[in-house]
Amino acid sequence: MASLPRHLASETIVSPPADWEAIRDADCPLVLEPRDLAGLEALSEGLASTAPFELRAEGAVAEAVAGLGDLPLQLRQDIQRLANRFAALMAVPTVRIRLEGVVSNACRKIHSDNTDVRLITTYCGPGTDYIPRDMEPEERNLQRIPTGWVALFKGRSFDPAHAFCLHRSPPAADMDVARLVLVIDTPLKPELAALLRGQHQAEPTKP
Hints:
The chain is an alpha+beta fold. It has a single domain (6-202), classed as B-lactam Antibiotic, Isopenicillin N Synthase, Chain (Jelly Rolls, Sandwich). It is built from 5 helices and 9 strands; from the N terminus they run βαβααββββββαβα. The chain has helices spanning 40-48, 61-67, 73-90, 172-175, 190-202, and strands at 30-33, 53-59, 95-102, 117-124, 129-130, 143-144, 150-154, 167-168, 179-185. The strands form 2 sheets. A 6-stranded antiparallel beta sheet has the order 1-7-4-9-3-2. The protein is globular, with a radius of gyration of 17 Å.
């Protein structure tokens, strides 16, 4: 198993082997799990070459993975393994999954997510940037998660007393690269889902 880069050694993260349960600790805003993509590189690069695209699905894990469409078997199996672990960690019956081919500078601003916990792994291209805890949210303080590593980001809605993780997507357009990124979330809370439905219904019909 890979070891942590030197710049991560003193941060409030979990060293390998990663214990995903550590994300429940109030002082742990980020859990990283090093891993080797084990043959997924070529598949990921092939998909990333067709970017931009965004595949979204939600439901029970098997249903959500199937909803992403016709993906290569090895990639589909990897997504399903991660989604099963995430659902078990968060004790949820359903998940939201997004697989995205990114070539833009979207989400390049440093931010925290309005979620409880979000899983992100980058199959191809540069990984997500984050701000180590207790450091100012400035670009000079950004650290980059290695490609292939699994990251659990704690969001603002996990618990008001917990530290959350500030992060951003690397500016793919400026770097002239394509990224293949997997994001797994818990189900939307009923009140937020209702709000989003209301906003959608209020939008004027496009000609």
